[in-house]
Amino acid sequence: MTLSSVAAMFFNLRFVLIGFLFGAAGVTGAVAVGADSAPPVAKKMNVVLVLADDFGWTDLACYGSKLYETPNIDQLAKDGMKFTQNYSACTVCSPTRSAIMTGKYPARTHITDWIPGQMPENPKLIVPDWTKYLPLEETTIANDFHKAGYATASIGKWHLGKEPYYPEKHGFDFNIAGTDKPNTDHYFSPYQIPTLEDGPKGEYVTDRLTNEAIKFIDKNAKEDKPFFLYLPHFAVHLPTQGKKPLIEKYEAKITKDMAQNNAVYAAMIDSLDQSVGRIRDELTKLKIADNTLVIFVSDNGGRVPTTSNLPLRVGKGSCYEGGTRVPLIVYWPGITKPGSVCDTPVISMDLYPTIMSIVGISDGAKNAVDGVSLVPLLREDGKLKRDELFWHYPHYQHYQLGGATPYSAIRKGDFKLIEYLDDKPTELYNLKDDIGEKHDLAGEMPDKVKELRDRLHAWRTEVGAQMPTKNPNYDPSKPEHETPKKLEGSKERTGMVKPAPTADQLLDAKT
Ligand SMILES: [Ca+2]
After folding, report:
1. HSE on the CB side for 435, CA within 13 Å?
2. How confident is the model at residue 122 (pLDDT cuts 50, 70, 90)?
3. pTM for the whole thing?
4. In the prediction, which pLDDT does 30 show?
């Protein structure tokens, strides 16, 4: 019996108990239920999944930020459970999003880089022919909700392929603002997003997506229909564009000793926090807050130097903790102990089976083979049997400070091993003693290196991970790939220093 089926069983038992109590009350006349009334059916729980983009591990006050003010998300943590060792399945957007949707490792679906990815000019290795969309054959969390009679909506960034791979082909009734693009170029209307009608000039997209989310919630509450709201905000991905009064508020607050010191980025986080507050207020107003699971999570680490993930090493795009470790907060009304904290390592794929267990869709997440239900952790009545997590990135990342060359990694217990797929030496860190990954232990602990490397290789075979191959045309006299120099703060404040290439440009470069 799997953990999720055990959880579902307990959940169903709870319904039986509720039914019994109501039935008993009817008999004694304590509740106005007629003698011939059927026992009340437990209401299906609604789900709101808020996915922030490029949101770093220390980007919340409740995770240690001294600059960003996030009272609403902090309140969610006060009401629910905060995970201190939650990982994204990848250090960039699309692979993690596919992992959340399918419960599968990116290495298994072959969606291993951001879509459409990037082509280095002189790589040592040739990246494999990976998948640049979420195949329609995959079963998603939205498919399962849809099948169970839920209303489903994806409101915000999609980034899992062009049409016909949009959210509405993956189990969502509605797709608002989702396209194949990695970001919006315009946080203020006119947005120029084909799947989002422009609002009044100057409307802010984070506010707008929140308005759309509230409309969806209101409609379903009115119709008494359970809903799954997937709210993948564009925030706080580049370009850094925030509302002026908020920027001014943070400009006045920033001091020289702050590692996080970008007022525009802080303003973007503030707006995102207000979004969570407005949604929770609406749930309360509609009297459905007690029956709505709310989750806040990010798709990869914070981008450096826009933010700082200290004490973690570097950020988005890098193989180190700054690239993968991100906030996760789960509020399960009546179950999560207020202000509880969980230190167990968990990962993006776990959300799908966890949510299915909580809402009691017992035949859900059947194909989510790489996730485990976190219900025992949320109930604080058990542990996970799993103690290994893996990453596989057979690509080059050179738009982010720190960057990456092709690598695989494993975390087992307190240890993390990074194996580069070119000729760079393998690294080993003890994260319990060295969260900043400053002391490479590979030379001192050859047995541990062998143990973890053997497991990593076995896992790669098991999931069918695609491997890069040697580039016969590699020219060692030329730089392997470009790494951005230190980015200047002034440019950072107005947007992207170097725009990402369009899909067409990349295809042109390839052909
Ligand atoms: Ca991202």
Report:
1. 9
2. confident
3. 0.88
4. 34
* Largest Cα–Cα separation, the chain: 88
With beta carbons less than 8 A apart as the criterion, state whether 206 and 272 touch.
yes
φ/ψ (deg, to 5) at 340: -75, 155
| C-alpha–C-alpha distance, residues 412 and 171, integer Å | 34
Report d(CA 391, CA 105) in Å as an integer. Answer: 8
Contacts of 62 (CB under 8 A, 6+ apart): 70, 73, 74, 77, 78, 82, 329
Taking the chain, what is the end-to-end CA distance rounded to the nearest angstrom? 50
- The separation between CA 328 and the C-alpha centre of its own chain, rounded to angstroms, equals 8
Rounded to 5 degrees, φ, ψ at 96 are -65, -40
Label residues 268-290 b or e (16+ Cβ within 10 Å = b): bbbbbbbbbbbbbebbeebebbe
Give dist(CA 276, CA 73) in Å, integer: 7
Between strands 328-331 and 292-298, the pairing is antiparallel
3-state secondary structure of 325: strand
Query: 46-120+129-386 sits in which CATH class?
Result: alpha beta
Nearest CA among 362, 345, 274 for reference residue 74: 274
Residue 159: left if φ>0, alpha if ψ -120 to 50, beta else—which one?
left
Q: At what angle do helices 3-28 and 351-359 cross, to 10 degrees?
A: 20
Ligand 1 centre distance from Cα of residue 372 (Å): 23
- Work out the angle at residue 278's Cα, subtended by the Cα atoms of residues 273 and 280, and round it to the nearest 5 degrees: 95
Kindly give the distance from the C-alpha atom of residue 510 to the centroid of ligand 1, in angstroms, as a whole number: 24
Kindly give the distance from the C-alpha atom of residue 185 to the centroid of ligand 1, in angstroms, as a whole number: 15
328 phi and psi, to 5 degrees? -145, 125
Q: Which amino acid type is present at position 361? A: I
Q: How far apart are CA 180 and CA 166, in angstroms?
A: 8
- Return the residue matching tokens 């703060």: 489
- 251-279 pLDDT tens trace: 999 999 999 999 999 999 999 999 999 99
CB 417 within 8 A of CB 391: no
Cα of 278 vs centre of ligand 1, distance in Å, is 23
Cβ distance 332 to 289 under 8 Å?
no
Dihedral in degrees, nearest 10, Cα atoms 52, 57, 59, 65: 160
Residue 76 Cα to ligand 1 midpoint, Å, equals: 22
What are the backbone dihedrals phi and psi of residue 353, each rounded to the nearest 5 degrees, phi first? -65, -30
Q: Within 13 Å of residue 482, how many CA atoms lie on the same side as its CB?
A: 9
- Classify domain 405-469 by CATH number: 3.30.1120.10
Ligand 1 center to residue 248 CA distance, Å? Answer: 26
